[in-house]
Each structure stands twice: as structure tokens, then as C-alpha cells.
Design a protein that fits this description.
The chain is mostly beta strands. It has one helix at about 70-80; strands at about 40, 45-55, 85-90, 100-105. A four-stranded antiparallel sheet has the order 3-2-1-4.
Length: about 100
């Protein structure tokens, strides 16, 4: 999305994610949308990727440490069908650490 609208403030904190995964070099676009219906394994944790996460106006509002940016949602809606990120259901709870490898199984 940042490539579509580089002037916007795409800080990850704005989106209130529970988990952020750095994808492999060369993976472009909304890679996580292709994970829906599949399972992620990292550390001891197993997550079923259950569906897209639609975004509302909350991502555009002023938050602690950064200002409002209405252009975010104007990019997300047409470019990503209003979905940015995905929801997941925990299949097997477990500990994870920063830097754990993530496997799509």
C-alpha cells in the first residue's frame, strides 16, 4: 500500500495489529490475503488464517505520537477492497519470540 500512496503515514502502530510478520524479499502487494484458509506456524504457535480484516476510519484518526491521515482509507478501499491484514484463529497456543521464523503450512 505504501507504494500506492507513499505520502501517507503507514506506521504499523496505526493499524493496531496483534502480530506483524515481515515477509520475504520479493513478496509484493497484499501477500497475507493469499494466506486465508491456510495455517501459519511460528515458534509453538499455530494460527488458522480465517479472513480479511476490513478497515474503518479509525486508522485515519490522530493517535498517540502521530497525526490524522485521511488519505490512508482512500487508498485502502479501492486498492485492497477495504481489507488490510487478516484475522486469525489460534489452533494451538504457544510462545513466540521476535525473530521466530514463520511457516505457511
Amino acid at each position: 500500500m505504501k507504494q500506492q500512496n507513499p505520502e501517507s503515514d503507514w506506521r504499523v502502530e496505526r493499524f493496531r495489529s496483534s502480530l506483524v510478520i515481515d515477509t520475504l524479499p520479493g513478496m509484493m502487494g497484499l501477500a497475507e490475503q493469499d494466506w486465508i484458509g491456510k495455517v501459519l506456524k511460528m515458534g509453538e504457535l499455530v494460527i488458522e488464517c480465517s479472513g480479511p480484516a476490513p478497515r474503518c476510519g479509525a486508522v485515519t484518526r490522530k493517535q498517540g505520537g502521530f497525526g490524522a491521515d485521511a488519505s490512508l482509507l482512500r487508498s485502502i478501499v479501492p486498492e485492497a477492497g477495504q481489507n488490510l491484514a487478516i484475522y486469525g484463529n489460534i489452533q494451538s497456543a504457544g510462545l513466540i519470540d521476535v525473530g521466530d521464523e514463520v511457516y505457511l503450512v
